[in-house]
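Tutorial sheet, problem 5. The two components below are modelled jointly, 355 residues in total.
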Amino acid sequence: MSKKKWFASELVDLANIKEKGMVAKKDFAIHHNDFHLEIKKGDDLSKVPPIYWDNLKTEQVI
Amino acid sequence: MAVTEPRIIFGVHSVAPYSRTTGKAYGLLKVIKDSSLSLQGELISLTGGSNKYEWAVEDGKVTAEMALKFAEYPNFVYELFLGKAVTVNAADASGFASTATNKNGTSLVSVAGITGVTVLAGSEADLKFGKYIIEVVSATTVHVYTLSDVDITRGADGTLQTDDGRITASALTITATADTTIPNFGLKLTGAAGPIAMTIGDTAEFEVRPVNTGGSIDVIIGASSDRTPEFGCVMVAQQRSNGQMFEIDAFKCKASGLPFGLAEKSFSEIDAKAKLLFDPVKNGVFRQRHCSP
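Model answer (structure tokens):
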């Protein structure tokens, strides 16, 4: 599996997220191989592995 | 001259359709139930005047047909009766998953979705025969469906989650360039370059073959170019207890159509007809041989 190449704009995005805090804006579930996480609106997402941050953005959870 | 043993025909032993070019058999049909020749002759009558009876009768046309009833599907019957040769696949020592192709929409198999579905190394024993559908349920998640549970308990048990054949208990997350396992099915989906952003409702389809040693076939029937060939056919009756043997060699036959019977607790039987044609080279329709050893 190749390493993800981060772009500057994405790093800025992630920095903003960290500054504002990773709080779920809606319910969502991640089921990926052995990783399973049920997210409720308002949950702290700071422990969610970075591999899933793009998913959370696309799904408008963060 | 002494009284001779009557010539009696009993049962059917085998039917061997053969190439009219090489003479070689396409194969031998052994699970054969019937291979009867019917020769329906027409008599043309002359009547006239006040006579109630016919003045003359002459031979009309003879319709020669072979009724074939058998219960096996060797590769050559697809060619002879449906006009299309099958594709023979070698044994799949590690199983097989076909290339996933978009069915509805275009986002699933794309740079914003998945690159495809492949066999999960080490879980080949969990591969289950069937046709599968992947459906996008949110921008980054999919469900997977099967169109048959006939093989669902091969290896790790799979479970139908819904009446429409869903096999995933929860929607699977697709992440860019990473693999996502389909649990218990020996398969994985690979995320494309991303960012992952699929269209809800888009679907893709693929087929799976489990690990097999006997090989497999694949054939699409019904193209306008499909055409059944003419073939010769040797039919042999069952050898009688007194040793009598009986053979018919039909020089030029043509058939079309092949049923596939999927009926409750029944073997599928093929009930097909072939026309027997005049062969100008042999100056005949068929040849019959009988022998009493």
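Marking note: Confidence is low (pLDDT under 50) at residues 1-12 of chain A. Full credit if you identified this.
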